[in-house]
Design brief:
Length: 174
């Protein structure tokens, strides 16, 4: 009887290990240690904060790759053959935050869509582009202008964080 229970436990352990391996492969992320994550209801203890720049954020994952920290942004509902520019800029901002908070620039960041993982090399040009975008966004906010809607996509409109207050909303109130 004891051998039967032992074999059953070994079989269950093998099934669980196989399930875990398949789940990990499905993430599309490299097999490296995860420093922190902001997914599956397990929030980061605190956001990354770069006071000098006035920027903070929480990447979905921070990975330890060869002693360096690499941010990962996950967009599980996106299916595209090329990454969206806005997603790349969000990832670039996370790279900037890692650089500011860890005193070392990450070599790249990873952007995971439903079926593909994209790599954004974090170069001086990317850094300059995201800093310019941050400056542009600040200037727009300081002008105290009403932002104009830049799309005609009802689903995107409904998913916006300002949907409830927007006077330009095109989506039906859910």
């Amino acid at each position: 009887m004891g051998i039967t229970i032992g074999l059953a436990l070994v079989f269950c352990a093998l099934l669980l290990a196989g399930w875990a391996l398949r789940l990990r492969r499905g993430t599309g992320l490299p097999w490296v240690p995860v420093i922190s994550q902001d997914v599956l209801g397990r929030e980061l203890e605190r956001p990354l904060i770069a006071r000098r720049i006035g920027l903070s954020g929480k990447p979905d994952y921070l990975l330890d790759i060869r002693g360096g920290v690499v941010p990962v942004e996950v967009k599980p509902g996106r299916v595209a053959s090329r990454p969206y520019e806005s997603d790349l800029m969000q990832l670039a901002a996370y790279c900037l935050l890692v650089e500011e908070t860890h005193d070392e620039a990450p070599p790249y960041g990873l952007l995971r869509y439903a079926e593909r993982t994209f790599r954004l090399d974090y170069t001086e040009a990317v850094r300059a582009e995201v800093l310019a975008l941050i400056d542009e966004m600040r200037a727009t906010l300081e002008e105290d202008q009403e932002g104009e809607r830049t799309h005609a996509d009802a689903a995107r409109c409904a998913g916006c964080g300002f949907f409830e207050q927007c006077d330009q909303a095109i989506a039906e109130d859910a």
